[in-house]
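Working notes for the structural subgroup meeting. M.R. asked for a predicted model of this chain before we commit to crystallization trials. I am recording the input and output together here so anyone reviewing the notebook later can reproduce the run.

Input as submitted:
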Amino acid sequence: SSDASNIVALKEMAQVYADAGKNKSAEQYFLQAISKGDTDALTFYNLATVQLDLKNNEQALQNAKHAVEISNDDYRFLYTYALALENNGKKLEAIQAYSSSFAKNNKFAKACINIGRIYLEDGELEKAEENLLVAYSLEPRNFEANINLGKLYGIKEDYNKSIFHYSESVKIQPKNLTAYNNLALSYTSANEKLKAIDTYKKIISMDGSSWNSYYEMGRLYLSLKENDNAKAIWMELLQKKPNYPKKDEMLKIISSI
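Returned structure, recorded in token form:
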């Protein structure tokens, strides 16, 4: 039938646009295919995926839900449904859908990471740890698993584990300044001040305008009674960034040492 071949052509066009990152056009073609009577779960899943990228969260949720209603055997459909639920603020339902997704594919670390992250955001540390460790055991080189475990153990004040996971994070993404910053803060919390200073030096070598790294280094040098180093790094900061917010406090300390 011409409608059936039409639907196939429309879906192929949609996929071409989606693969090229042209999600608005992809959305239009998927919608046209559905308007012509397409009832394939994959179409609703693909539509929901491009709508999530477009931040059309309510429509994405409707279509992801529809995909799951047609076929709830595919872990990807359940995962996208979970993402859409989470983007619409439905956290508990999202956790259930992520869990269903993982039940369909118990090698799918991303579902466990997202469950762990939601629990971590809500301060439910034990549940967060349980899910993040499952993800980590599946994919030890997963950046998100490590960065979230680093954060979790930092909150629990288990700084050695926090340092371990942040160190893994920077090995996986060597240009990720947030991960380096978190690592420096963990070293500071663990009282490993020299390692914290080395980490801040690394950050500055990657981004010379990371002003807070200069400031934190100065504070660490002061705590180590290395006043000359503290003074030098702070003077360098104020030379490069004369209106740094903590300028007055720094000048007061510099003049007293």
